[in-house]
Amino acid sequence: MKKTGKIWVALITALSLAMPMNVWADTKITSISLKIDSSIEAGDSDSDVDVTTSSRYCSVDDVEVTNEPSDEWKSGARPKIKVTLSSDGDAYFGTGITKSDISVSGNDATVTSVSRSGKYELNVSLTLEKLERDSSDYDLDVTGLNWDDYDGTASWEEPEDAKRYEVRLYRDGSSVSSAISTTDTSYNFASYFTRSGDYTFKVRAIYNTSNKGDWEESDELSVSSSEAKDIRDNGKSSGNTPSNSIDDDGGPGDTNTSQGAWLKNDTGWWYCNADRSYPVNQWQYINNYWYFFNASGYMVTGWVQWNNVWYYCCDSGEMLTNTRTPDGYYVDGNGAWIQ
After folding, report:
1. Which helix (H) or strand (E) holds 332?
2. 147 in helix, strand or coil?
3. What are the residue ranges spanned by the domains of the chain?
4. What is the tens place of the pLDDT at every residue in 196-228?
5. What is the CATH number of domain 143-236?
6. Alpha-carbon distance 216 to 200, whole Å?
7. CATH number of 261-338
């Protein structure tokens, strides 16, 4: 019996030595920890991302930014990276490894996919957190505010990060217009010069809804009644006179230029013609500008629909042409909304 036992021990030992070592040594990798250190920032062109792993049986071979921009990273962008890992020694990546088996530290990131390239290589795709610039990083300081006293055009210099602007007109310290949005670095206020006074404008630059510059105020432009009229006249473009949607009831195209007088009561402004009649539910051309009067004879401001065409009258009643309305829509040389 003792001799037989020794034979079995010798046989088992021999078989063990004859078997490949990886039958005993192969380790299945079922989870991975990644640490991400990203230097990507909005406004920069660098795409430096470093990824390491504390996992015992694998290492990071390569890190690739897959959506690198051609110029610079924009605020709101989410960098995407592909991490390639290789197993060490005789370890291998299990077939059942999934996104939930990947833990991430360092920069916030979301694992979007995991795929094997054979037993010994694993690809992990991740999307980093949204890039946001610090508000102090935006150049939204508007400078160079200037008046053109010929036609009432306000202008300013363009800061680097401005996407659009908001501009307001004031007369004698009181607001004359609502906040007008424009992408230009100038705005023509000619139609708002309805009487004498000290006119100023305020403007601020806007990058997005979360990042807006401070309001900056211009110097005063002091005008008399006659100078205000000159500014309105000079501000007219050659295409100001409306010509579409003409019919027998009047409207854009009906140039009734009889002299009359503006009158005001508690309800609003109305216009008394030279023959003591007054316009009702129609357009009338007065002192080189178009005005619309409602069914009660009062001057209308804001949007006016006439013969299936939309027009916009500013706060002082004049129909706007060749510009953007305060709520952001364009009207052509005839005053019609460009759809």
Report:
1. none
2. strand
3. 32-128, 143-236, 261-338
4. 999 999 999 988 777 889 999 999 999 999 999
5. 2.60.40.10
6. 10
7. 2.10.270.10
